[in-house]
Write a structure and sequence with these properties.
Layout lengths: L2 H13 L5 E7 L2 E5 H14 L10 H10 L4 H4 L8 H19 L4 H16 L3 H20 L3 H6 L3 H14 L1 H17 L10
Antiparallel strand pairs: 1-2
Length: about 200
C-alpha cells in the first residue's frame, strides 16, 4: 500500500469519530455532543486560550494532541469521566488496543509520531500534555454549566467529584484552574451542581 493510500485510510477511519456519542449535552439544539465535535472544540479552545499555557508551551503540539487524543474512541467508545475505577481500567485497556490498531494504519514514520503524541497526552508527560488535558477537562464543565447542570444532574454528580477534576486543570494552567474552581462554586450557589456532602 502506498503512502497516500495509507494516509487516506487513516483519515477515513478518523472520520468515524463523528458517530461516537458522548455524555455531554449541548443546548442549541439540545442533543448529545459527538467526539469529533468535542475534539474540534478543544483545538479551537487551545488556540484561543494559548496565553494561559505555561511559558514556552508549544501550542501547535497541544493542538496536535487534542486532534488525536480521542481517535481511540472509534473502537473503544466514550466513557463517562465519573465512571467507576473498574470501568476506567477496562476503558484504558480498550483505548490502548485501539491506539495500536488505528495509528498503525499510517505510514510508519507518522504512526510513531502520532502514537507518541497520544501516549504523551495520556501520561501527562509534558507541559503541552498537561495544558491539553486541562482544556479537555474544562470544556465539559463549561457545557454542563451552560446546560443548567447537564450530565451533573443526570448522573447525580456532586461538587467534590467535579473539584477532583479541577485539580487536573490547575496542573495544566493555574489561570484556567482558578476559573474552573469559580465555575464550580457558582454552579453550587445557583443550584446547577449538588454540593459536596457535609462532613462528619
Amino acid at each position: 500500500m502506498d503512502r497516500l493510500t495509507r494516509q487516506l485510510e487513516f483519515a477515513a477511519e478518523a472520520g468515524r469519530l463523528k458517530a461516537v456519542q458522548r455524555q455531554t449535552m449541548l443546548t442549541d439544539p439540545p442533543r448529545r455532543e459527538n467526539s469529533a465535535e468535542h475534539s474540534w472544540h478543544l483545538t479551537l479552545m487551545a488556540l484561543a486560550l494559548a496565553e494561559y499555557a505555561p511559558p514556552g508551551t508549544d501550542i501547535g503540539k497541544v493542538v496536535s494532541m487534542l486532534a488525536l487524543h480521542d481517535l481511540v474512541e472509534v473502537d473503544a467508545g466514550d466513557l463517562f469521566v465519573y465512571a467507576g475505577e473498574a470501568d476506567q481500567r477496562r476503558q484504558r485497556a480498550a483505548e490502548r488496543a485501539a491506539a495500536d490498531r488505528i495509528f498503525a494504519l499510517l505510514p510508519p514514520d507518522q504512526a510513531v509520531r502520532f502514537r507518541g503524541l497520544w501516549d504523551e497526552f495520556e501520561e501527562r508527560a509534558s507541559a503541552e500534555a498537561r495544558f491539553a488535558r486541562a482544556i479537555d477537562r474544562l470544556q465539559p464543565m463549561l457545557e454542563n454549566s451552560k446546560a443548567g447542570g447537564g450530565t451533573w444532574h443526570e448522573h447525580g454528580i456532586r461538587a467534590d467529584q467535579v473539584m477532583a477534576k479541577v485539580a487536573l486543570i490547575e496542573d495544566g494552567s493555574a489561570e484556567l484552574g482558578g476559573y474552573a474552581r469559580r465555575l464550580v462554586e457558582r454552579a453550587v450557589r445557583d443550584g446547577t451542581l449538588a454540593p459536596a456532602p457535609a462532613g462528619p
